[in-house]
Amino acid sequence: IYLPANVVMAEPVQFLYLTVPGAEPTVSHPRSLVIADRLSRVSVVETYAGHGEGSYLTNAVMEIVAGDGARVDCYRVQRENRSAFHLATTATRQGRDSIVHVHAVALGAALARHDIRVVLDGENGLALLNGLYILNGTQHADHHTTIDHAKPHCESHEYFNGVLDQHSRGVFNGRIIVREGAQRTDSKQTNNNLVLSEDARADSQPQLEIYADDVKCTHGATLGPLDEKAMFYLTSRGIPAAEARNLLTYGFGAEIIERMEIAPLRAQLDRLIRSRLLGTVGAA
To answer: With contact defined as beta carbons under 8 Å apart, do 40 and 7 qualify?
Structure first.
């Protein structure tokens, strides 16, 4: 997709990658390139899904180039079947005064990995990474992010929430690089994990590499079960324990979904997550 200067797309562009597995395992390599020239704007929705049973591998790449003053919003929904393997890279490069939002939701696949690489290559750029992974059974999902502040006066905000149940495992590795000369960088990174089973596991590894001296960089990670005080508050007001768990778990995921600006997609994901979390919590 190429947007010339000053072009604003009123409606999002949707990429749907649907795999129908056959008797033998298959592999696909979808590759997408979005170039937004100066002061243009576009929203892209990627959906990866599988229809039917069977093993297959998806190896996907999305590249985004945002010119000076451009804005690109990328929404990515991975809902492959439980026998699938999913490897993906999202790479972005931003010019001066540009904005890029990457929203990543991982619900499917037996094994999934998503690498997100952001380069802020112009002053006053803004990058938002907003991710949610909901896993159960023996699912395993990795998210590896790198935000490279190559120029001064840029901001990046990163929020990833994970819900893990049964024997699932979620891995988050977040790396922030502030290059020499990239003064007045403002970067925030948060990874929160809600673990609903003693056999589930969450690994979080935040990393900061700072080569400038006038910056604001923070990172934090949390890991734990549902808040007992919140559970007590809800149950003491007559809400059954199972429903209280559903409400608290849904709220944990909804925090990520609420940052998405496309209302129909937000509503669709809301229904998907409600359905998924009801199954996840009920199986705990």
So the answer is: yes
Give 267's contacts (C-beta < 8 A, 6+ positions apart). none
- Which pair of structure tokens corresponds to residue 36? 């937004």
The first and second tokens of residue 51, run together, are 């229809």
CA-closest candidate to residue 13, choices 22, 25, 36, 24: 36
pLDDT score, position 251: 85
Give dist(CA 78, CA 241) in Å, integer.
Answer: 31
- Tell me the whole-structure pTM to 2 decimals: 0.92
- Cβ proximity of 111 and 140 under 8 Å: yes
For residue 115, the one-letter residue type is: D
Query: Cβ–Cβ contacts within 10 Å for residue 117, how many?
Result: 16
Cα gap 249→141, rounded to integer Å: 19
Report whether 248 contacts 240 (CB < 8 A).
Answer: no
Tens-digit pLDDT profile for residues 199-247: 999 999 999 999 999 999 999 999 888 878 888 888 888 888 877 887 8
Tens digit of pLDDT for each residue in 69-91? 999 999 999 999 999 999 999 99
